[in-house]
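Duplicate of #3305? Posting structure anyway:
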């Protein structure tokens, strides 16, 4: 090899190292930004490893005439009991915060709408207002393709399943699936097992109707979202595992493709990085053909 050739190779290698180093710096800088925001907002699971990611194959994947549209998704978010419709933004004044950006960073054209709701109506099975709100979102965003994703935390996660079942068929056909965080499957068991005193006070006025508030019982003859990603906390004392253990097996039997992500920490709102992982898992499941979904183990 001549001197000129050797110098050219040396310069190329140096250029490659500089490019590779710059790319790493950008990625690491972005991670630090996410970490700072999430920790400032009180996140407890920023560095939580994904303990388990079991996948349940659909016995019969739901078929829609509309192809999923992951380029322009619209997230409809239902907050938890201890918060309000500003939760996805997590900043004063409704400014867009880390939950919004967790989805936006993976789908730049994404839109997000958080719905206010009366949790008492959720406990009594009255979803008429929420159905109307979803219908209003369909008109607001001019949704004509399968762009909707239902996302909920705690009781908001519980509510997205009856809400989906109660939507008109033409609206259900616009829903790609759901992402649920730390939600119960059975409210009666949750009322008995929870260690959160504030939850006991909330459940008390509805105690007589709680035996009927099991999702597997309520939705036995109803539709469920075609794709579901569920995030569960390993040390959740507010919604213990006994309250949610039947959810994914039930959804699987109903034909949904499901993935569970287990996080370290206690009940609450996951950090941005965990929402990002959940959304990436969701997108990978949505993209699978019915035949591929049947083969998922």
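Output from current build:
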């Amino acid at each position: 090899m001549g001197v000129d050739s050797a110098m050219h190779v040396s310069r190329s290698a140096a250029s490659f190292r500089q490019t590779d180093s710059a790319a790493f710096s950008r990625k690491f800088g972005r991670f630090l930004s996410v970490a700072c925001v999430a920790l400032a907002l009180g996140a407890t699971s920023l560095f939580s490893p994904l303990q388990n990611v079991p996948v349940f194959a659909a016995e019969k994947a739901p078929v829609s005439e509309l192809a999923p549209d992951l380029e322009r998704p619209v997230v409809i978010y239902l907050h938890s009991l201890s918060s309000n419709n500003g939760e996805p933004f997590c900043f004063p004044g409704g400014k867009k915060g880390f939950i919004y950006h967790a989805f936006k960073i993976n789908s730049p054209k994404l839109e997000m709408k958080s719905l206010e709701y009366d949790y008492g109506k959720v406990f009594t099975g009255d979803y008429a207002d929420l159905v109307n709100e979803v219908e209003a979102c369909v008109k607001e965003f001019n949704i004509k393709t399968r762009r909707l994703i239902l996302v909920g935390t705690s009781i908001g996660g519980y509510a997205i399943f009856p809400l989906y079942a109660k939507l008109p068929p033409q609206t259900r056909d616009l829903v790609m699936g759901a992402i649920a965080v730390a939600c119960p499957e059975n409210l009666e068991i949750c009322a008995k097992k929870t260690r959160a005193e504030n939850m006991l006070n909330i459940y008390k006025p509805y105690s007589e109707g709680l035996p009927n508030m099991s999702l597997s019982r309520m939705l036995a003859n109803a539709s469920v979202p075609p794709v579901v990603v569920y995030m569960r906390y390993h040390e959740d004392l507010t919604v213990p595992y006994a309250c949610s253990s039947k959810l994914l097996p039930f959804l699987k039997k109903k034909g949904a493709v499901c993935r569970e992500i287990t996080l370290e920490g206690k009940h609450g709102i996951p950090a941005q990085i965990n929402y990002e992982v959940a959304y990436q898992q969701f997108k990978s499941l949505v993209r699978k053909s019915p035949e591929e979904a049947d083969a998922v183990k």
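Confirmed duplicate; merging threads. The chain is about 45% helix and 15% strand. The chain has a mean pLDDT of 78.
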